Amino acid sequence: MTPTQDDLYPDIRAALRDLCAGFDSAYWQKIEEQNAFPEAFVNALTGAGWLSALIPEEYGGPGLPLLAASVIMEEINRNGGNSGACHGQMYIMGCLLRHGSPEQKQRYLPGIASGELRMQSMAVTEPTTGTDTTKLKTVAERRGDKYVVNGQKVWISRVQHSDLMLLLARTTPLAEVKRKSEGLSVFIVDLRDAIGRGLSVRPIRNMVNHETNELFFDNLEIPAENLIGEEGKGLKYILDGLNAERILIAAECIGDGYWFTERAARYATERRVFDRPIGQNQGIQFPISRAYVNIEAASLMRVKAAELFDAGKPCGGQANMAKLLAADASWEAANACLQTHGGFGFAAEYDIERKFRETRLYQVAPISTNLILSFVSEHILGMPRSF
Ligand SMILES: Cc1cc2nc3c(=O)[nH]c(=O)nc-3n(C[C@H](O)[C@H](O)[C@H](O)COP(=O)(O)OP(=O)(O)OC[C@H]3O[C@@H](n4cnc5c(N)ncnc54)[C@H](O)[C@@H]3O)c2cc1C
């Protein structure tokens, strides 16, 4: 039986499979060894127009539904790739699309659609405040026709491979706002002007081959025209984009999950120990099968969430639940796959240890599992607010 949702966008699936076939295991291993950015892969995706999936036709994209975009992300990971290198280019522009002025959209979106402009960084997280976003300390102070930014961010991905970055900073002190979610604003930072002129970037070595950085703002000047929407409403604008992000990340996890279970089932069938395939033992079969069941279920929730999103209906609950179910299922599948491969699972040439590390990240970023459970507790089950 093929996965339940394989009949969704079969043409997109086939095209992505073909594209990914040009970036085989040897390619990803070389990139990992060199700690490099998968430039050729991202260029191929961009050239074929996949990363502009969500940009409307009037700005040069195909204006596909989010469900179709989720299939693109799923197929990248299902075919051995890592969407983490490029998923930002697909969804970060959503904030500009929904809340930017007509001039801003005209100025940036066609370039993002063609890939000439890379907008794949979003700077929210800070070292001292973490998940408690409303307490973030980076400030943007209006001075004439500029904002002057001071502060620090951490874990900001793909900055060295972006032209534009979204920045969330406080424009009204926390003590002066009625609600803590007010007084934060979103800006477009042109990294080509900013780096070395008020913005410094320090890469963070980390568990996966993922370009992520500490950022230091020291009187960085941003033209006032780079403010998105109204001053003080930035957190709402960022939150508006999170459902799309959750659904796309869920799809990546689902792609990983299918990759792990397909690999594990194949190896369990081929590998002979004690004169029989190891997959003949139910102790080997069941963890792989259970992970598969959970991936299928997560995929259904992803489809439900995406359909609601595409219909313009509230989907926060489904988007968050899809992300949690998918991240758990892919991690379960990763463990089953590694265990099935025994010692060989640890050998880089099998790709399993790489994908294992990559899929582990989804339990923490872009949102940690606990924060999703907190959302469900408070907003779906109506339990008391905990923070
Ligand atoms: C590789 C990588 C790339 C990233 N890329 C980006 C990026 O591009 N842009 C960006 O802005 N951020 C990025 N992040 C940051 C990421 O979103 C955060 O790491 C994540 O949201 C968790 O925040 P934190 O690390 O500050 O953890 P903390 O807030 O310090 O929390 C630590 C742990 O405690 C738990 N916790 C905290 N408070 C509670 C509570 N009240 N109840 C229960 N549990 C709680 C959290 O769930 C977490 O597990 C990235 C992170 C990584 C690792």
From TrEMBL:
Domain of life of the source: Bacteria
Residues covered by the Acyl-CoA oxidase/dehydrogenase middle domain: 121-219
InterPro entries: Acyl-CoA_DH_CS, Acyl-CoA_Oxase/DH_mid-dom, Acyl-CoA_Oxase/DH_mid-dom_sf, AcylCo_DH-like_C, AcylCo_DH/oxidase_C, AcylCoA_DH/ox_N, AcylCoA_DH/ox_N_sf, AcylCoA_DH/oxidase_NM_dom_sf
Known cofactor(s): FAD
Keyword Secreted: no
Any one GO molecular-function label of the UniProt entry: acyl-CoA dehydrogenase activity
Ranges where the Acyl-CoA dehydrogenase/oxidase C-terminal domain occurs: 232-365
Residues in Acyl-CoA dehydrogenase/oxidase N-terminal domain copies: 12-116
Entry keyword set: FAD, Flavoprotein
Keyword check for Cell membrane: no
PANTHER family, per database record: ACYL-COA DEHYDROGENASE, ISOVALERYL-COA DEHYDROGENASE, MITOCHONDRIAL-RELATED
Family affiliation: Belongs to the acyl-CoA dehydrogenase family.
Protein name in the entry: Acyl-CoA dehydrogenase
Native source species: Verticiella sediminum
Organism ancestry: Bacteria, Pseudomonadati, Pseudomonadota, Betaproteobacteria, Burkholderiales
